[in-house]
Amino acid sequence: MTAPNGEAFRVHGVGATHQGMVRKHNEDNLLLRPEAGLWMVADGVGGAQAGDWASAQIVDALQDMPVPPTAPEVLASAVARLEAANLRMVSRAAERGGGMTASTVVLLLVHGVHYTCLWAGDSRCYLLRDGVMTQITHDHSEVQELVDAGALSPEEAERYPRANVITRALGVAPRVQLDRVAGRLQPGDRFLLCTDGLSRMVSDAEIAALLTESDIASLPSSLIAAALSAGGHDNVTVMVVTCEAVAGDTITPAAPGAPWVTGAGDVR
């Protein structure tokens, strides 16, 4: 990909998922489609089979999405496919006689020199830029609403007993509510998409320190290892996407990652 000023850079990512130390099933899912400029992490809700199935619906909806020629069309296509996955989850829950068949989602789209992040739930996207890490998503959760209302301090929120209760996700209503943030890429940008199996177990300060490691291929294993060392109370899934300046048009393939890495690649 080439910026208007003629500077060439590549965007590539690596991702990994782990069952954790407590859960019997992994209900998380992830998708890397570098050729489409698309990276996604999802956290299924509803217990074994239902949660697995729900997060898999998002993968199924996005993995064969054609790549439209313009950024607005890319966004519209992604939203339409997420809405279709949402309706499948709602229908499945009705067929099962009720209960929760849902999934959080956080999705990073890159088109040209711009990015868009879509999300529902408490799976997060962080951006590390110029050495400073910022959470660019805002959790859809009960505890976050209490913090926003001033009823809890951030320190109290860390000990809140219902921290896992989400207020928005795919599958909870016939019409999905997605939030969106967009911006312009800069060479050196590094995005982290993750489920709460990382963000609830590892502090932002520790995540930021790990995210500055120079070898992107090792980051998924490093981040997951930190979550497991902290107890690994939940499934944990991470995706790291980085924007690097390169000389000319030569694209160097991403280095292979840890054994559980699902995929890696580049988008021009």
TrEMBL record:
SMART domains: PP2C_SIG, PP2Cc
Gene Ontology molecular function, alphabetical: protein serine/threonine phosphatase activity
Pfam families reported for this sequence: PP2C_2
PPM-type phosphatase domain: residues covered: 13-243
InterPro entries referenced in this protein's UniProt entry, alphabetically: PP2C (IPR015655), PPM-type-like_dom_sf (IPR036457), PPM-type_phosphatase-like_dom (IPR001932)
Superkingdom of this protein's organism: Bacteria
PANTHER family reported in the protein's UniProt record: PROTEIN PHOSPHATASE 1L, PROTEIN PHOSPHATASE 2C
Protein name: Serine/threonine-protein phosphatase
Native organism: Vineibacter terrae
Species lineage: Bacteria, Pseudomonadati, Pseudomonadota, Alphaproteobacteria, Hyphomicrobiales
